[in-house]
Amino acid sequence: MSKLSTIYFQYIKNYYRSKSFYLMLFLILVIGVMMVYFSLRYVNTLPRFLGSTSLPPSLKETLFYYIWTFILANVPVFASVFFGSPALSSEIENRTAYYIFPLPINRYKLYIGKYLAAVTVTLIIVAIYTVFELGTLGFIFKNLPSIDFYYSLGLLILFILSIMSITFMISAIFNKNTYAYISVFIIYYIVFEAGSLIIELLYKVTPTYLLNEAATIIDRVYMNINTTDFLAKPSISPAPFSDVILAMLVMLIYLVVSFIIGMFLFERKEVS
User: Fold this and answer.
1) Domain residue ranges of the chain, discontinuous segments joined by +
2) Number of neighbouring beta carbons within 10 Å of residue 65
3) pTM
4) 235-242 — which CB contacts under 8 Å span 24+ positions?
């Protein structure tokens, strides 16, 4: 455990010093400021866009939390690309593996330590955005967040663990960062996102087993509106409990399976 903690804190420092961290920090600050402006500017006029002259205060608050969370749900994908894609492949490309692999360090611990460090810096980025969200909406509506906020936050953390696990598995396959970067984007935005659309159009079935569909539950705990599902009927009510359980199960399966495969690949990776 002492070696694992050493690995974890060392890679936290590496991420903190990296350009990727400051790029993600800059992006989340820009997005946060834009969302603050949007919320303050359109808090009273947003109902018009929905075809209504007014909304009950509680529903208006829920709508704003939904919009903020809808934006936030895309952040883990980009964070996993920046922090997870080069996590393992960089050891080969930068030839640091020649010095690290011969050391008396269990590769499983190295994998877990790097994974936890990547998840941690992603959570830091998410926490900054969440501070913007809570501060802005708390100022506007003068209320503490509802229980749905904590459900959504817990599901978001599970999604971060899942997408980061997939990214680490891909990083364990390649020896070059560029291949890992491209592969993560292809898998999520073409295999998952485009694949989901094609399946819906061709077979009239929602592929709930795809990770991107499971991730929609993060904002649907506020309103059951799935912008990627043409078959679903939108509702201002929260997603049913059965949908929440199914999405959690799908994300857990992706997390466990990809984590095990990734560790297996990394443990057998050779430096050539």
Assistant:
1) 2-267
2) 23
3) 0.90
4) 236/59, 236/62, 238/148
The two most distant CA atoms of the chain are separated, in Å, by 68
Question: Directed axis angle between helix 57-72 and helix 107-141, to 10°?
Answer: 150
Residue pair 57/141 in contact (Cβ under 8 Å)? The answer is: yes
DSSP calls for 196-264: HHHHHHHH----TTSHHHHHTHHHHTT-B--TT-SSSPPBSSPPPHHHHHHHHHHHHHHHHHHHHHHHH
Please tell me what DSSP assigns to residue 268: T
Residue 191 is inside which H or E element, if any?
A: none
User: Rounded to whole angstroms, how far apart are CA atoms 133 and 173?
Assistant: 37
The DSSP symbol for 163 reads H
Task: Specify the 3-state DSSP secondary structure of 54.
Answer: coil
| Residue pLDDT, tens place only, 237-259 | 899 999 999 999 999 999 999 99
